[in-house]
Amino acid sequence: MYRISKILVPVDFSEGSANALEHAASLASRSGADITALHVMSIENDDSLQRVLTAFEGWPVPPIAATRLPLDRQLRERTLDLYNFIEKVLGKRYSSAIGREVRIGDPVKEIVRLARKKRFNLVILEGPKKSLFSYLRAQGTLLRLTLRLPCPILLAPPDSSSDWDGPGNSRTLANLRLLHH
User: Fold this and answer.
1) pLDDT tens digits for the chain (181 residues)?
2) Are 114 and 150 in contact (CB under 8 A)?
3) CA–CA distance from 52 to each of 49, 56, 58, 59, 165 (Å)?
């Protein structure tokens, strides 16, 4: 039997990652697993696709040099954001038991690197979003992760608010889809 003892939950502060964190807490409460929340900051170049698209569509794009904070300050702020996000999603009783990691780099590479280094045996991700662009981007990321991770991936459904009534919900596991790699 496959025993889940270490769960990694990548977090981007969205509703979907909050949902994935709730599912991880539910699963951990049943299995006694440790949870680590990971946030990856990506350093974007001035010529990033997102910057080009927003400029093309006429959206105001502030100059990066004027808005960029020193890297150490960004890391401190993101670490505090992660702490507050976990507390907001799970409440104080769960937040102290969850490990936190903030890294800089490509999200897929950092998720895989941490999963291998700390020997996680499950990664819980938010499910695909509803817009076509978000869906396609998520599928590309999911494919890259599936091919590289040394453990299974669990997708939390994006729209489970009607089925979710807290960490004690026994229907949670039935709502999750397991991807085998």
Assistant:
1) 678 999 999 999 989 899 999 999 999 988 899 999 999 998 765 445 555 555 555 555 555 554 577 888 989 999 999 999 999 999 876 766 899 999 999 999 999 999 999 999 999 998 776 665 666 666 778 888 888 999 999 988 765 553 444 444 434 343 333 433 3
2) no
3) 5, 6, 10, 10, 41
Q: Give the chain's largest Cα–Cα span.
A: 55
SS3 state of residue 8: strand
pTM greater than 0.70 (yes/no): yes
Q: What CATH number has the domain spanning 6-44+71-179?
A: 3.40.50.620
Residue type present at position 116: R
Q: Are 81 and 9 in contact (CB under 8 A)?
A: no
